[in-house]
Amino acid sequence: MIIALDAMGGDNAPHAVINGAIEALSSTPDDLELLLLGDEEILKKEFNGSIPSRISIHHCTDVITNHDQASRILKTKPNSSIVQGIKMVKNNHAHGFISAGNTGSILAASLLILGRIPGVQRPALGAYIPTSTGGKILCDVGANPDAKPVYLVQFAIMGSNYLDHIEGRKNTKIGLVNIGEEPNKGSELYQETYKILKDKFPNFVGNVEGRNLLDSDANVLVCDGFVGNTLLKFAESWINIFGSEIKSQIKNNLSYKLGAYLLNPVFNEIRKRYDYEEHGGVPLLGLNGVSIVSHGSAGSKSIKNSILAAKKCVDKNLIEDTTNSISKFLETV
Q1: Rounded to the nearest 5°, which phi and psi values hold at 223?
Q2: According to the CATH classification, is domain 124-279 in 3.40.718.10?
Q3: Could you read off the pLDDT of 66-110 as tens digits, one per residue?
Q4: pTM
Q5: String of b and e for 215-226 (b: at least 16 CB within 10 Å)?
Q6: What is the CATH number of domain 1-120+286-318?
Q7: Cβ-contact 31, 1 below 8 angstroms
């Protein structure tokens, strides 16, 4: 199996990508090979002239920046690591692609090159949310700020397949993110989506309010990309602020320091549980190929786990099984 990595994408590239690749290979069978895409000279310097046997480099000359128009990078940056990596998946030269680069560019290139799974109206970007009960997926978190009921219903199907195949969660339950629990709450989009989910999905548990997102019975939380992205960004900022406040309080109080020392194992366990790097990136759901988006600030641990997630996608036939699930749903409508 060959996984292509965008070695130039992300805040910590290429160092984090290279270290993550080496860590992944040390914990996987010999059948996994990694192909790093980027500036060959820069990458060879990072390896200090000693490239592991299961890693190879594909030289790319174009560099995508935040100023590039995502929908035009196939024409303007054809030799970029993102475009080249996704083309390798399309041409069966790689089984999956991973990047911590510009999300819009990854989504646009993946959609244009790989195409959608037959029947999928819109691909979606899911985010894995760790919780004390095993974690949930929030979908969509940015790919579709404008949506239709059928999009949200398909997000539920694709999110359920993701949790089953990648996180090993069986018998998933679906919840619709909304401003109230009653069926008539929210906009017309959410009211119509509620009706379809209730009619077609026995595992639908109803609307889920913001205050119940983390402790609801639902494992798959469905919403449009505008709502999902807002929730995700708020959660990230709140966690950072909360962590900084705790550190500040401990630093300025001796008794707090002593308590923190005693509770250090507890803090470490909680930090590990809610660390996004423990789960790596998430595949773009609904595309006809494995394309994984990692967090822009991904470190080596996140890259390693993204590689392992990509391997799971291939080993467990995520694309094929999602195709079958979408096909079965379409037969009912």
Answers
A1: -165, 175
A2: yes
A3: 888 988 999 999 999 999 999 999 999 999 999 999 989 999 999
A4: 0.88
A5: ebebbbbbbbbe
A6: 3.40.718.10
A7: yes
